[in-house]
């Protein structure tokens, strides 16, 4: 059994060494694990770091966005299992060992989703999100969150349902999982397999509105009802986005949430 870690990268120099170390610390030899870094032409010293890292295969060239970079990595990957791990994310120390234990219990499984820790800028854990089964009713309902770095996918799934949609710039992981769940089932793993950073400038932070519009497009694509809680929830977010753009108001709302013990998610 071989694992391929695919890391798309663009100007993530401050974080990428932790990504490398988390992969290298899994206790797997070269015959069990390969690490592909697909860099989009970084200018922050990332390429110099890549040149110094033993055991990492990489390419640095312009691409057509995150989906294109991930696809390049998947196409190069030789492993049976593929882990998409963004440059500013990192694996839990026992991620692959834990995954193997669950695979032994579910040998026919082809998609697994573990828990994911979301990390603040100071390195502390902000939130632990449980892995779940990515069932279509919830995916196309109110549960649009994907634990992307904690999701382990067998290469046969990509062969059957295709690669990421290069035209999907803001919900590429979600859109692909929806497609995949029409043909496969996802098995949850109740252990943290990876950690993801919430940081300013990330796609999740900057393009939340576009993500919700994408969720709505997927509901239309799969003929989901207009009159539903999920539809209202998504549209309410879109309709009220102008309020979130008011930094003064957003800061006050976040302060009130903290008073009630609800730590606001995502950087301000």
State which percent range the strand residues make up. Answer: 15-25%
Largest sheet properties: 9 strands, mixed
CATH superfamily of the largest domain: Spore Coat Polysaccharide Biosynthesis Protein SpsA, Chain A
Mean pLDDT: 92
Number of helices: 12
Instruction: List the domain count as a whole number.
Output: 2
Under the CATH scheme, the architecture of the largest domain is: Alpha-Beta Complex
User: Order of helices and strands, N to C?
Assistant: EHEHEHEEHEEHEHHEHHHHH
Number of strands: 9
CATH topology of the largest domain: Spore Coat Polysaccharide Biosynthesis Protein SpsA, Chain A
- How far apart, in Å, are the first and last alpha carbons? 42 Å
**Mass-distribution shape:** globular
Class by SSE composition: alpha/beta
What's the CATH first level of the largest domain?
A: Alpha Beta
- Radius of gyration using CA atoms only: 19 Å
Q: How helical, in percent, are the residues?
A: 25-40%
Low-confidence stretches: none
Question: Could you list some keywords that capture this structure?
Answer:
12 helices, 21% strand, Spore Coat Polysaccharide Biosynthesis Protein SpsA, Chain A, alpha/beta, 9-stranded mixed β-sheet, 9 strands, 268 residues
């Amino acid at each position: 059994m071989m694992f391929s870690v695919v890391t798309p990268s663009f100007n993530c120099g401050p974080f990428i060494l932790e990504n490398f170390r988390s992969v290298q610390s899994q206790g797997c030899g070269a015959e069990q694990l390969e690490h592909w870094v697909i860099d989009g032409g970084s200018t922050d010293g990332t390429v110099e770091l890549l040149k110094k890292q033993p055991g990492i295969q990489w390419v640095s060239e312009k691409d057509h966005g995150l989906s294109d970079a991930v696809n390049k990595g998947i196409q190069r990957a030789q492993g049976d299992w593929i882990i998409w791990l963004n440059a500013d994310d990192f694996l839990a120390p026992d991620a692959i060992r834990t995954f193997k234990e669950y695979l032994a219990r579910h040998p026919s499984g082809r998609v697994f989703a573990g828990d994911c820790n979301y990390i603040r800028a100071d390195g502390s854990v902000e939130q632990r999100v449980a892995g779940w089964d990515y069932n279509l009713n919830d995916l196309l309902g109110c549960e649009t969150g994907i634990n992307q770095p904690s999701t382990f996918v067998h290469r046969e799934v990509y062969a059957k349902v295709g690669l990421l949609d290069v035209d999907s710039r803001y919900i590429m992981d979600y859109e692909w999982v929806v497609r995949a769940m029409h043909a496969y089932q996802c098995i949850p793993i109740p252990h943290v397999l990876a950690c993801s950073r919430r940081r300013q400038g990330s796609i999740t932070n900057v393009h939340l509105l576009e993500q919700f519009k994408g969720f709505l497009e997927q509901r239309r694509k799969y003929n989901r009802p207009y009159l539903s809680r999920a539809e209202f929830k998504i549209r309410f977010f879109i309709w009220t986005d102008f309020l979130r753009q008011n930094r003064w108001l957003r800061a006050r709302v976040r302060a009130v949430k903290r008073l009630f013990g609800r730590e606001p998610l995502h950087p301000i």
